[in-house]
Specification:
- The chain has 30 helices and twelve strands.
- Strands 3-4-5-6-7-8 form a six-stranded antiparallel beta sheet. A four-stranded antiparallel beta sheet has the order 9-10-11-12, with no helix packed on it.
- Helix 7 runs parallel beside helix 11.
- The protein starts with 16 loop residues before the first helix and ends with a helix.
């Protein structure tokens, strides 16, 4: 025992944690049995500097005197302590606390039945002159020692985890810079907040990583909100960058961002999950929650808090997730700490706006170096404007997609005048091909409900093949995209959803949307047919059979479905559009010639590849040379080649050496009015369009050449 005056300053032991803790527990047990007033006992200040959970438990013990009857029972003392209101369930996963409970049970088992006078025992234990317990103190400074001695003495000791080090360092910074807030953080991190994260523990019953991921999310948000760009690689350094010189509002946001997920009125089980289940859904049939499209990390659950704890800063977490999660978090903070009423319908509508803006802003959320900090700061600011105030008219730039912002304003004005159409409008927004954006629609109250239902009926995947033709019969609806030194046109696809999504999404300078006129005319005709699905074929036939319909490229693309078979709906056209490339993807230059495809299919040879010289059918072309040069198919027997050109079908590979074949060929040329230029002409001189169906005419020629030459 070191008596007062023998050692000045504060005693910081480097080793002996278990011995010192046992001594503290012995004092507590004997003092309780002797009915000693603990308020005057200095040993009750025993604490853990780097283990907040153990520190909280020691404070709990000092403040929790057992009943007299408790000591007479044979049940473990730990069982009684666990039933007290101040005991946290998360402590059962703290090894230091569990070790202390084991020691208390051992003390109770050993001393509880002993014929021991606890008053005498306490006097002996607390006697400072005839001490019962002594320490040998080795003064390190005077003996020229360093803390390496600890490593040598305590080879069994485990270093603090990254989480424990973080807590110790962050608590130290808070105590120094924000002393009024430090106690709040210290008290909650191992108690209320631990209860929150326990719902998301891993298979090893650990919550450290989950806590750190969410702390990083909140810290990133705090940094962005305050225009701070931290280059720190480690969370401790980043926390110092963001919070060390931060004002109280920033620290309050940090604390509140944790507090809102704790259920202060009851059981924590599923408390957070239920919040998100009430707000979002991935079930299209659900009408109670906001439908989420292909949002990363929500395949199994819409619990954004859980997803953040699991995936933040991984490929399964996007900036869109950050913004949507922040929207919910900011609302919860405002309701709990800023006296805002918890109006669920209002929140749902505002979250819908945020969702729509995120879905339309893929390019804007692909943050580029140099504008990333300012843009994400603006985006968070805009989310707050929408969620707290419903303000979509003063959003920042750069920020969300400007066309979609205008669309949201347009829809808001429309619903103010037509509130009865809200459900129809929301159902249309939730369509998988529109994903919140209605810039392709004309909003007219008299026809909107009918058009909304018609769109949902028509744009089912099973009807995409006919839709590409029916829509094209109503007008050229493609979107133009840059590609190298040129451009390509993107139509809808008979097979894939993404081309439709890219087509319908609002883009800069869409005034009006390129597909607006064709879509509205198609929906109008479909509604006039009483939404009879056979109308899709009827609409195409009426277009094809109309004497005023020019036999231009649209005519052929409507009539021959194989020409609309581009997987991504992408085409490159030359000026006349009688020469075209049907691309396999957005930018890769592998393609087929749609006119050659239609020619071979119309002739009945799609599966008869033996008639064509290698490379066999279906013929694919590649690269800039093929795209702007000749694209031909070559007949196996004669070597005659077919090529679609502006004025018709150009034949080449002549003359034919075999006299009999040559005679048959010349006879066919006379029948088809093919001159010495070997051109099957389908465009009259001075005209821009075919006077005869070039695919049908060319197919007949192809059949004749294969069968007779």
């Amino acid at each position: 025992m070191i008596t007062e005056g023998e050692l000045e300053g504060t005693f910081y032991p480097l080793d002996g944690q278990q011995r010192l803790t046992t001594l503290f527990l012995l004092h507590w047990y004997v003092a309780q049995r002797a009915r000693v007033d603990l308020a005057q006992q200095c040993w009750t200040n025993f604490t853990y500097a780097t283990r907040p959970g153990a520190r909280q438990f020691c404070e709990f013990l000092v403040a929790t005197p057992p009943d007299c009857d408790m000591f007479e029972k044979e049940s473990p003392l730990s069982a009684w302590l666990k039933n007290q209101t101040g005991y946290f369930l998360t402590w059962k996963h703290d090894p230091s606390i569990q070790s202390m409970l084991v020691m208390l049970d051992a003390l109770h088992k050993t001393l509880g039945k002993a014929d021991l006078g606890f008053q005498d025992a306490w006097e002996r234990l607390s006697d400072t002159k005839q001490t019962a317990i002594r320490f040998h103190v080795l003064l390190m400074k005077e003996n020229g020692l360093t803390d390496k001695l600890y490593i040598t003495m305590n080879s069994r000791g485990k270093p603090l985890t990254e989480f424990e080090n973080f807590k110790a360092n962050f608590e130290g910074m808070l105590k120094k810079q924000h002393p009024k807030k430090a106690n709040d953080f210290i008290q909650k991190i191992d108690n209320e907040w631990a209860d929150i994260f326990w719902e998301y523990k891993d298979d090893k019953c650990q919550i450290d990583k989950q806590f750190m991921r969410y702390f990083r999310f909140v810290t990133d948000v705090c940094a962005w909100r305050n225009g701070i760009f931290s280059t720190a690689k480690f969370i401790d350094e980043m926390a110092d960058d963001v919070y060390e010189n931060a004002d109280e509002k920033c620290i309050d946001f940090l604390l509140h961002a944790f507090d809102v997920w704790h259920n202060s009125n009851g059981n924590q089980t599923n408390f957070v999950r239920v919040i998100f289940d009430n707000l979002f859904t991935t079930d299209k049939a659900s009408l109670k929650s906001l439908f989420l499209f292909n949002t990363p990390g929500t395949e199994k659950s819409v619990d954004f808090f859980g997803a953040c704890c699991q995936d933040y800063k991984s490929n399964s977490w996007s900036y869109g997730n950050t913004l949507l999660f922040y929207a919910v978090l900011r609302w919860k903070i405002a309701v709990r700490f800023e006296q805002m009423s918890d109006d669920y319908p209002k929140l749902s509508k505002r979250l819908r706006v945020v969702r729509n803006l995120i879905e339309a802003s893929n390019d804007e959320l692909a943050l580029r170096e140099g504008d990333s900090v300012q843009r994400i700061t603006n985006l968070l600011c805009d989310v707050e404007k929408i969620i707290l105030h419903g303000d979509i008219r003063s959003l920042s730039s750069p920020g969300f997609n400007k066309v979609q912002i205008d669309d949201e304003i347009r829809k808001e004005d429309f619903l103010l005048q037509n509130p009865a159409l809200e459900q129809d409008l929301h159902a249309l927004e939730d369509h998988a091909l529109l994903q919140g954006g209605l810039s392709v629609f004309t909003l007219q109250s008299s026809s909107f409900q009918a058009y909304s239902k018609a769109f949902q009926t028509l744009f089912d995947k099973a009807r995409w093949p006919d839709l590409t033709g029916a829509l094209l019969s109503k007008g050229e609806y493609a979107r133009k995209w840059s590609r190298g030194n040129g451009a390509y046109l993107s139509f809808g696809s008979a097979k894939n959803a993404q081309p439709w999504q890219n087509l319908f999404r609002g883009r800069r300078n869409d005034n009006p949307h390129p597909a607006n006129d064709a879509l509205m005319r198609l929906l109008d005709d479909f509604c006039k047919s009483s939404c009879n699905l056979s109308a899709l074929v009827t609409i195409q036939n009426e277009y094809l059979n109309n004497p005023n319909t020019d036999k231009d490229w649209r005519y052929y693309f409507v009539k021959y479905p194989i020409m609309r078979d581009a997987p991504r709906g992408n085409y490159v056209f030359e000026a006349s559009r009688y020469r075209a490339c049907m691309l396999k993807s957005d930018r890769v230059a592998t393609f087929r010639d749609p006119y050659l495809c239609a020619l071979v299919e119309a002739a009945g040879y799609s599966n008869a590849t033996e008639h064509f010289s290698p490379p066999s059918w279906p013929r694919e072309f590649y690269g800039n040379q093929d795209e702007h040069g000749r694209r031909i198919i070559k007949l196996q027997k004669t070597g005659i080649m077919f090529e679609c050109v502006k004025d018709g079908w150009q034949l080449s590979g002549l003359p034919i050496a075999n006299a009999q074949q040559q005679s048959a060929f010349m006879h066919i040329c006379i029948c088809f009015s093919i001159g010495t230029d070997w051109l099957l002409r389908t465009v009259r001189p001075g005209s821009d369009f075919d006077y005869v169906d070039r695919v049908d005419k060319g197919a007949k020629l192809l059949k004749e050449l294969i069968s007779k030459v």
